[in-house]
Each structure stands twice: as structure tokens, then as C-alpha cells.
Amino acid sequence: MNPRPHIPRDLRAALPAERLLADPAHLAAYESDGLTAFAARPLAVVVPETADEVVAAVRACHESGTPFVARGSGTSLSGGAVPHPEGVVIALNRLDRVLEVDPVGMRAVVEPGAINSKVSEAAAAHGLRYAPDPSSGQVCTIGGNVAFNAGGAHCLKHGMTSNHVLGIKAVLGDGSVVELGGRSAENTGPDLAGLFCGSEGLFGIALEITLNLVPLPECFHTVLASYDSLEKAGAAVSAVVASGLLPGALEIMDRLAIEAAEAAVSPDYPEGAEAILIVELEGTSPQVEHDARELERLLRESQPNVVLAAEDDTERAAIWKGRKSAFSAVGHLSPDFIVQDGVVPRRRLGEALAEIGRIAGRHGVRVANVFHAGDGNLHPLVMYDGREEGAFEKAEACAAEIVGMCTEMGGSITGEHGVGMEKRGFLGQMYSEGDIDLMKRVRRAFDPKEIANRGKVFPSGEAPALGLYGMHPLEKDGVISRE
pTM of the predicted model, to two decimals? Predict the structure, then answer.
């Protein structure tokens, strides 16, 4: 085993000693993110309390060539926040303020560690909200949302994070501080703020983010329909979209996902359903009343077993509680699982779901399906028991085949979770060598030494931590062992 390098002297000088963590017991909490199949122990964890301290830490890393990864709540599901074994973690949880809410300009300025749902809570007093709503919205941070261009159940109507970011103040990998975009959606020139969104931490760290806010809807109309097959639920989605209606959300859960949600949070979904469809309309009362009548007609024609409309906010919350808890709820059915987030063209949704069933059968694993049906963003959860010999390998082979299916159907390897470490080997299925080389050149323009989130996204052959798709998760040379 190679000896671990020392923490650079400039980094030690950048922050008080008590906020530079190097004890193994402290580092253990930062070894992995929401995708626990990948893990690596960093040299140290830096805990800044101000933007200036973040800048000082990045500049110290740049001078010494030390890799760093920015981390918020660690909810990434692609290994995007896994540290480099020769690098440091810059933890942003203490930079969590909503700095400004401008009700006239309908914008907010926040620090990167601000919790997603807290932004909407701060805006609600002014009749506004922040539209992107990942399922982890109660814990995930805006900085992480920006890094991975997070979506959520309501992105069908409102778009992804990049559609709501106006400006970003950031420190780049070379230590320079830049202003990208601004406070208006009418900026001229290249959309550099948009480029930063979804860059997965390869450019640097956002210090302040200016967000667009939208008015709170006057009312919601939330409907749950249950079906005796996934195909019928998928056909209902196609009918709703073809009608010209634009719901705030269109979500589907299959039987296993329903079973998990019932075990975890008891949303009281209809018994015996093979699939449920959640449709939510939002807007002014006249508009919603008109659209609700059309939606009711479409759903009745889709051969549902049951159609239930939420009568009040309590019933609406119960419907969404089951859906929002689906990922964590699968832990009630399986001790381990792999979450995928590939995308297929919406017209091929039913075909994709049937193929996932066949893939799961071939590999002898169970797969629960939860997905943003309106935009074809699949979330198959491949279940396995890591204590059983060969179970992990079967699960990763199943997950890999599902990703390949998505690209073969003309879709994407990721819709919102990002490439991270998990899908590096699949980037070549979507892009040519020339495309990937161009991406690397853009990255080096922001970070010449390639120290910002090194080892992520690109299929470089370097393995800062090991995990899915043919890489063993418990390697010992610089990578954490769980013995």
C-alpha cells in the first residue's frame, strides 16, 4: 500500500485547526454519499463558515495540486460527492443562509449549503416558491442541486434547476472568483451560469446562487389513479400529454414501489394495484377547474381500477408522502439497492418498463420502478442483499443493462442524478471521443490542474474509489475497506 500524502501546509493555514478534520473517526462520515457502493477516505475535511474561507481552501488546494470535492448533504445518488483518497472534502453545510428574497424581482440569493425546501419556506411569506423539488428536498442543498442540475416531480412543467438559476458567484478550480450570469434572465453573451449548472463540481464551487422564484399556485388538484398493469398507467400518461394538458407532475410507481411506500409511511394507496399514477394540476382556480374535468375524462377512459382526487391539503400530502419516500422506503424490502435514473423517449415508456422486467428476470433480481413519467425519466431500484455472495455483481449487471437499454432507445444515461462515478463507463455510449475531448477541454478552462472533483464523469481509467460495474467496492489501496 502506498503511504498517504500529507495535508498541504497552506491548507492547514487556511482555517482554524478545529475545522480541519483529519481524525479517522471524523472522516468516516464523509467516505461516501447516497450511493454507498462507492467509498474512499479523504486526507481531510475542511469545514468553512464563510465564502472567503472556501476561496482560501480552494486556492491552497490549487497551489499544492490537491484534489478537492465540494459536499453539501451528501444526497448524490451517482457517487458525485465521494472524495478522492489523496484529496480533501470541502463541507459547505455551514454556508446555509438564504441571503435575500426579493418579492418584486421574484428572486432569491442563497449560499450553497441552503436546504432546497428552506428556500421555498423563505419565499412563501411573499407568495412565492422555488419550483425545482427533488424528492430529497427536505435535506438536499442548492449547491448540490446546481452541480447536478436536479429536477424533481414538478420539473415536467417548471423545468430543471438550470431553468431557475440566474447567476452564480463561484470560485473556480484555479482559485479565481467569478460572477456568472446575474440577477436577470435577460443577460447577453454565453450562458455561463447555465454551463456551470450540471457540471458536477468539475469547474469549482458555487459561493452564492441567484434563483428565480415563481408565484405560489392559487390551487392544486391532485389525483391518484390505480391500474392492474404498468402498461395501462403508461398509456394514461400518453393520453394526458397528447391532450395538451400540462400538469405540474406526472408520476408512476409500480407494485414493489407501492409495497415499499406502504411499509414505510402508510400512504394508504389502493390495495392490489400493479401501478399507480399521480397527476397534479396547478394554477388559477378557473384554469384548474377546467383542466380537472378534462383530466377526469381522460383517466376514466384509461381503464383504471380506482380514481381518487385529494379533497384537501392533508390528502394531497398523503399522496405525495408515499411518492417522495419511495427511494428510502425500498429499504423495507431489501437491505441494499442500486438506484438508476436513465431516460427514454416518452413514446417508448411502456416498452422500456417491459424490458426492465425482462432484464431483471434474466439476472434474477427484483426491481422496483418509480419514475417521472411525463419526461421519461426512469428510476428503477435494483434490489440485492450485499451479504450474499454474488448478489452485488448480479445487481450491478442488471443496472448496467438498464442503462444500456436507455441509450439504445435514444435516451440518456442520466436524467438528474448525474454521471458522477457510477456512469463514467457509459459516457461513450452517448458521445464520441471528440465530444468527450471537447468536454475535457472546457473543464480545463475552468480548472487547469483538474483538481475539482477529480475522477468523476470522464472514463479516464483513474479510480479514486471503486464500486459499480465491474469494480470491487472494498478495495484497500487508498480506498476504504469496511472490515
Answer: 0.90
